[in-house]
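Hi team,

Filling in the usual template for the complex we talked about on Friday. All components are listed, including any nucleic acid strands or ligand strings, so the model treats them as one assembly.

SUBMITTER: L.P.
PURPOSE: interface mapping
COMPONENTS: two
RESIDUES: 502
SEQUENCES:
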Amino acid sequence: MGKLLALILAVITAVSAGVFIARVWWLPPDISVLGAGIDHQLGETMVASGVLFVVSQLVLALFVWQYADVGDNRPIKTFPGGATPMVVMATVLVGIEILVLTLVGTKVWAGIFLSPPDPNALHIDVQAEQFAYYFRYPGPDGKFGVPHPELIDDGNGNFFGLDPANDTTARDDIVSASLVVPVNRPVLLTLHAKDVGHAFYVPDLRIQQDFVPGLVIPLQFTATETVKKEIVCTQLCGLGHFNMRAYLEVKPPDQFAQWLTEQAAQ
Amino acid sequence: MRTKHVASFALLALAASTIAAGPAPRAGSVSGTVTFTGTPPKMMKIDMAKEPSCEKQHPTPVMTESVVTGPGSTLANVVVYVSAGDQPGPAPSATVRYDQKGCEYIPHVAVMHVGQPLEIYNNDQTSHNIHPLAKANPEWNKSQPAGSPPIKATYDKPEFIAVKCNVHPWMHGYFAVLATAHFATSDGNGKFTIPDLPPGKYTLIAWHERFGTQTQEVTVGESEAKADFVFKALPY
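RESULT (copied from the run log):
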């Protein structure tokens, strides 16, 4: 029986590792400038944790194979070297591993979250709400109207709480239910949540960021391919969470300019 | 024997009441046109990309409906009702139907008498969560997956209730709950007719979701009375 358990352990370990090595359920191809760094970091993390996983599981299987059926049912009274040093050592080792991974990964993370936005970045304001996203472009005047949460009126299309009656910069703001961006141009999103926590996740861009009500969270990316991809919410935000999505459309610069002109004309 | 007595009593009572009321006076009606002056706000295109089953039902994009205008500066979706002068009566037993179709509310404004049964249908291939934002009446919201039976509801107090869908933020409509059975909603040409109004003096109120209310006194005889309403429109 013990030998069978050891075999099952070994098989589970091999199959789990194989799924990752063969990249069976891997991420979609990267279409962003920062994606390569994230993929590299993800690879390092996978290798580090994967090697430890395989080694520890195989050692466990080996010990089960060796000692499970010895016929000695006496409980273990002593532990070689004592249990406390063993636990302390394991904790320290795992802690060091996580710390090293964090330090190495910080560079990539900071590249996304801590670097100042590119001066040429296209600034788009994002409102997330149960259960949709809305994207706001500053319009021909290049200025965003000031949002007033108390003026938000979904049924009349005022998702950002703009005040066009008194705020002339708000009159030409373009609001879209799809995120349309030009290819190869840095994009700066400022994320707002109207009601509860939401998330912005586009696996192809390798970015995933929460929306937090009350905070304005900047998020940068540069898309390198003209595609249409889904943006999904990955924070359970209510009964319609499953249906909270929008589309990211990356267009060539001329088509993007044309789209923007069409939107502004409406 | 007992049943027979009861039956004859009922017949007697019915005859007495008919005699007391006398022949019903010929009912008149009020009709008119609702127009606006000024510049109404521009309606916005609704983007339903996130709900493909609804988007494909609309070959041309749907616009927001808070101000629907017709030819000649006429105004649709204005509820005109008798606010004073008529006799309170029981709620009509006919069910008011409210549809969710193509991720829109149809009609945009559903008018009903206090206590009148209301049935809300989901005709879409997606879930809706209807949320009437009642203040005088109890507020509720109900989820309705595709293929669910209609939601039944009634409202006990007169109120104009904004309606939204908790799943599709662009969906927007109104329940107009009135204490009178005499009402009409202006059509795409701004025209309305309140039928079956006994002769008498009445106060009419015209309500528009964006432009507020207008009041007018009207005297109804045996022919059709006229009452036109003019709203002041603002672009923002």
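MY TAKE: The mean pLDDT of chain A is 91. The first helix of chain A runs from residue 2 to 21.

Thanks, L.
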